[in-house]
């Protein structure tokens, strides 16, 4: 029998996850005329009665390979001369004095959906690949030559799920000069604290950031890159059958780009341009617990072409 194969480390894979109940019944069901035994995984329901059901879930830090700027030049914002940052009114004097902040992608991912706000959503730095077998059967390898064969899953909206996590330093802005209507829309959609803006010459700003990074010992291994955010669905649903699928086969550079520069369509009003500080040897591998980078530099002042209140 030709089973689709999914490689999972059993140490990080569970047939019972918080929020729902799974029943594993080795009921020796037969598939068609085959004599092969099948283990049935039947997903009952969420304990809270909401959300999609997943039978087998594994999460991992994305291990993207070393990249060069030539490999990702397609993301660079050609034709974008200026960007606008929105922030709290009390920060306006600091910003005018060259103050600049890089948060992290994980910090823009609120733990509670009720806290979703400026340039943030609950899927920041996360991507989910859902695998669905064309014949309904799975084989789960443990990476040591063993595993579980002939898994049939019933009652799951998302049978087998990989969730990838990536994190880098990030600064979010909107493309172009200050637009009062856009700023008001951003404020009205869950960001009542913002009331000031600064417009930057993008080329001068990137040069100022790059110079500061090269001169700062804790940051000099990093590279500043900028790219337009694309809006749409970044999670994928993949139907497999008759061949081996493993997470090692994925194009991890493209997956990292997807994690960093794709957001839900609900955020398209932001018209976002994102500046990242990345380690080209380990993109996406910044530790989740790392805090913000905040500094002030006169070269950043020189890149500001407009600022004010709204």
Offer a quick outline of the entry.
This protein is mostly beta strands and 310 residues long. The protein has helices at 92-96, 180-188, 202-215, 252-261, 298-301; strands at residues 5-7, 20-30, 37-46, 54-61, 82-88, 99-104, 126-133, 137-141, 147-154, 158-165, 169-175, 194-201, 223-228, 230-231, 236-240, 244-245, 262-263, 272-278, 293-296, 304-309.
H-E order: EEEEEHEEEEEEHEHEEEEHEEEHE
Q: Please state the average pLDDT score.
A: 75
Number of separate structural domains: 1
Estimated structural class: mainly beta
Summarize the structure in words.
- By secondary structure, the chain is mainly β.
- The chain has one domain.
- It is built from five helices and 20 strands.
- Strand 8 (137-141) and strand 9 form a beta hairpin.
- The model is unreliable at 1-36, 42-47, 111-119 and 242-250 (pLDDT under 50).
């Amino acid at each position: 029998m030709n089973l689709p194969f999914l490689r999972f480390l059993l140490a990080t894979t569970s047939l019972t996850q918080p929020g729902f109940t799974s029943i594993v019944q080795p009921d020796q069901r037969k598939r068609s005329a085959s004599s092969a035994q099948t283990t049935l995984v039947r997903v009952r329901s969420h304990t809270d009665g909401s959300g999609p059901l997943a039978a087998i879930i594994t999460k991992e830090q994305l291990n993207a390979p070393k990249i060069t700027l030539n490999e990702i030049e397609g993301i660079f914002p050609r034709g974008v001369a200026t960007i606008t940052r929105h922030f709290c009114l009390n920060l306006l004097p600091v910003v005018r004095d060259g103050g600049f902040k890089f948060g992290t992608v994980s910090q823009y991912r609120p733990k509670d959906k009720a806290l979703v706000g400026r340039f943030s959503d609950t899927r920041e730095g996360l991507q989910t690949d859902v695998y669905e077998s064309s014949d309904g059967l799975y084989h789960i390898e443990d990476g040591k030559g063993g595993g579980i064969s002939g898994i049939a899953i019933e009652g799951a909206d998302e049978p087998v799920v990989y969730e990838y996590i990536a994190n880098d330093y990030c600064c979010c802005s909107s493309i172009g000069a200050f637009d009062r209507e856009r700023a008001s829309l951003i404020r009205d959609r869950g960001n009542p604290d913002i009331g000031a803006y600064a417009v930057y010459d993008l080329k001068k700003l990137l040069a100022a950031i790059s110079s500061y990074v090269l001169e700062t010992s804790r940051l000099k291994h990093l590279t500043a890159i900028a790219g337009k955010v694309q809006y749409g669905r970044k999670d994928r649903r993949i139907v497999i059958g008759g061949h081996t699928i493993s997470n090692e086969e994925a194009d991890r550079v493209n997956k990292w780009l997807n994690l960093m520069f794709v957001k839900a369509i609900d955020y398209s009003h932001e018209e976002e341009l994102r500046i990242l500080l990345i380690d080209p040897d380990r993109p996406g591998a910044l530790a989740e617990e790392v805090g913000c980078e905040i500094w002030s530099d006169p070269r950043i002042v020189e890149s500001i072409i407009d600022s004010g209140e709204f």
